[in-house]
Amino acid sequence: MLDKAETTDLIAPTPGLTGGVRSASKHDSGPKHVTGEAVYIDDIVEPYGTLHLAPGAATIAHGKIIKMDLSKVRSAPGVVCVLTADDIPGTNDVSPAHTHDEPVLPDGIVQFYGQPIFCVAAETREQARAAAKLADIEYEELPAILSIDDAMAQKSYVAEPHVMKRGDSASALASAPHRHASRMVIGGQDHFYLEGHVSFAIPQEDGDVFIHCSTQHPSEVQHNIANVLGRPANAVTVEVRRMGGGFGGKETQSMQWAALASIVAIKTGRPAKMRLDRDDDMIMTGKRHDFIVDYDVGFDDSGRICGADIQYAANCGFSADLSSAIADRAMFHTDNAYYLGDVEIRSYRCKTNLVSNTAFRGFGGPQGMVAIERIIDEIAITLGLDPLDVRTANYYGDDGRNMTPYHMPVEDNVLPELTRDLLASSNYRQRRAEIDAFNAQSPVIKRGIAMTPVKFGISFTTTFLNQAGALVHVYQDGSVHLNHGGTEMGQGLFIKVAQVVAEEFQIDLEHIKITATNTGKVPNTSATAASSGADMNGMAARNAARTIKDRLIAFAATHYKVGAAEIHFVPGRVIVGDVADISFAELVKLAYFGRISLSATGYYATPKIHYDRETASGRPFFYFAYGMACSEVMIDTLTGENKVTRVDILHDVGQSLNPAIDRGQIEGGFIQGMGWLTSEELWWDDAGRIRTHAPSTYKIPACSDRPEDFRMELWSSGRNVEKSIHRSKAVGEPPLMLAISVHRALAHAVASVAQGKVVPALNTPATPEAILRAVLRLADDTVHIARSDSNDRQEKGARSAAMAGVSAPQAGA
Ligand code: MTE
Ligand code: MOS
């Protein structure tokens, strides 16, 4: 019903209501997170007889298992059972898209170094882990593909290449006044959620199973486990109260661990828990895809792009997982905020003998955007322009310049206004001039500044996933039980949806019980992903609450003999014309005695969207989320050490459901993006072994890496032209890409070594080593001068003062 999807235009919290929409309510679990009272799966009291699991890992990247002698494993102390591929009761497959290329345990063929090939269940975790090391396995090695280049050369793909195009890019390039071609190498990223993967399966009657699983996608875990067990979906119940972070890493990667725990629980009749050790988690689960981007762009004297040819190659690892959708989203964000003229985008999904890469905040979008932002800087350097002017010259505009490469017009572009506002508040122009003047007289320390926009498409590009369900009960005392298909991973989804229900019933937030996601309550849900958790579950929960509210209104109209239009829900109370003024709880009680149902489901399907992948055209997104960041950095050209000295962010969350939660998402997303682009470096050796599988060798941002001066604001003119939930905008992923401004500011600092006249081919991550290499490549002579200058005492003093507080580069980072 259309009127149910309609939305209010509330611009401020409702006076007298505590915790309705637009209020900065704190995260419902905030105090419990900091006191340690929040129950994560490994905190659940273990029933008597619980078994603990440990995976046994392959020690080659690719090959046949010719002998697997597990007798020592089986006879080790405490071992109760050992699983191999032969022990899987149903289908040996946990591939999310049913590509059947991802076994629970492989049947004879190893596909990556560290792949789990058997699994031990023992009385204690220590016993299971110790036993897992006792296997006697012989392999016949096969050639392994360990790089994107090798995969491209051998045409090794997990899915067909895909093309998106508009116009004739070849002739646009041929006739362009200027042309620039290059290659960018983009690194991957480990999710580094604080809580690693964990699944706890408890056997039920009749061979059924109940699983506590740290997953963003309970329904898919349910369906996959049913297949693995050879049972119908109704034999499996999956519950998740909260994750200690997911970031996309628990959209599909939870399946294997849930499957192993379930099989052990069914086989032994005992509860079974699989909690991965951090190193195993980093070795055995997928990460952000690393990419290679080859590009050729044509542009005019003002820096306007008239044609582009962009080719992506994504490292998908050994299986398809979500790689097709992720590689597609990179293509959808090739343009970021810019009209590219005639354009062809090709994408290759490379199959390698590495762990299968997966969703990570932005879902391929960041990889698409980081390339176009470097391209824009290169155009600016080529023409001697301020990169910001090249950016704004290329912004989507009116008819004729508002068409994306996938033939969806951009109708809600707020970037010109947002840019104007951030230009004023950040004082970018003046600071850039000051920085250029500083760099001209500072031989060793160089500063950089960059302002970059974000335009991010909101909706799952697989259209059918854009649906959600909710379940709301009102009890006789007026308290409310809220459930929906979304999962909580720290992002504040549960509080936002509760606020929506509080607003609908006009009752304080404290009357609404937030409950664990459970496949027995709301079925057939989509992953909590694509940033659309609040958009979709908020609408579904509101529709459920409206159904109950409509029944209450109809009941009160009859009971008090008034027209329905005379009944108003105001904070805490219900006003029935001039006949009655009663509390919400009193009305609920009366309705119960009047035999009115006080429980309802709610459902929502995102309107307007459609997409034809064959022709790569349609409207895949309901709307776009926008933001912009201005970052300033400082580098030491002798060591590559760097720090972020100031960041200004303006981000458009539409009209915020909860400004406190949204601010947290923007800060967190930005810092996580900064980690991806600067310090987090994944490294595999020639045998295909990942050697950065612990925080000792993998450097995520620490508190001290926070920008010294961090000014972040929700954009006050923010609005959603579409009828989203209370006109808010999704906020989970878009802010990650604001961090591209840091990478571009680092490039500005590096370019200053050659007076800003040479393009620094800075890849990601821009670690201190990478920055140093870029500096050396750019201007060896300049650096020699700098070196002798730095012997000067004064310069040395100035340098250590300027860089005080910069953390030393980490080993392996
Ligand atoms: N914030 C926290 N604290 N923890 C997370 O795991 N995941 C991000 C983002 N913000 C994440 C997070 C990702 S990848 C997505 S898609 C969204 O939250 C999902 O939640 P939402 O749809 O409710 O925004
Ligand atoms: Mo987020 S990468 O869509 O889980």
Give structural notes.
The protein is an alpha+beta fold and 813 residues long. The chain has 22 helices and 29 strands. The structure holds ligand MTE and dioxothiomolybdenum(VI) ion.
Architecture blueprint of SSEs:
Elements: H1 2-5, H2 30-35, E1 51-57, E2 63-69, H3 71-74, E3 79-83, E4 109-110, E5 116-122, H4 125-132, E6 136-141, H5 148-153, E7 157-166, H6 169-174, E8 178-186, E9 198-203, E10 209-213, H7 218-229, E11 236-240, H8 255-268, E12 272-275, H9 278-284, E13 291-299, E14 305-317, H10 323-332, E15 342-351, H11 365-383, H12 387-394, H13 415-426, H14 428-441, E16 445-458, E17 467-474, E18 480-484, H15 493-505, E19 512-514, E20 517-518, H16 533-560, E21 567-570, E22 573-576, E23 580-583, H17 584-593, E24 599-605, E25 610-612, E26 617-619, E27 623-636, E28 642-652, H18 659-678, E29 709-714, H19 740-751, H20 768-778, H21 780-790, H22 793-803
Parallel strand pairs: 1-12, 10-11, 14-15, 18-19, 28-29
Antiparallel strand pairs: 1-5, 2-4, 2-6, 3-5, 7-15, 8-13, 9-10, 9-12, 11-20, 13-14, 16-27, 17-18, 17-24, 21-22, 22-23, 25-26, 27-28
Helix pairs in contact: 7-8, 10-11, 11-12, 15-16, 19-20
The protein binds ligand MTE and dioxothiomolybdenum(VI) ion.
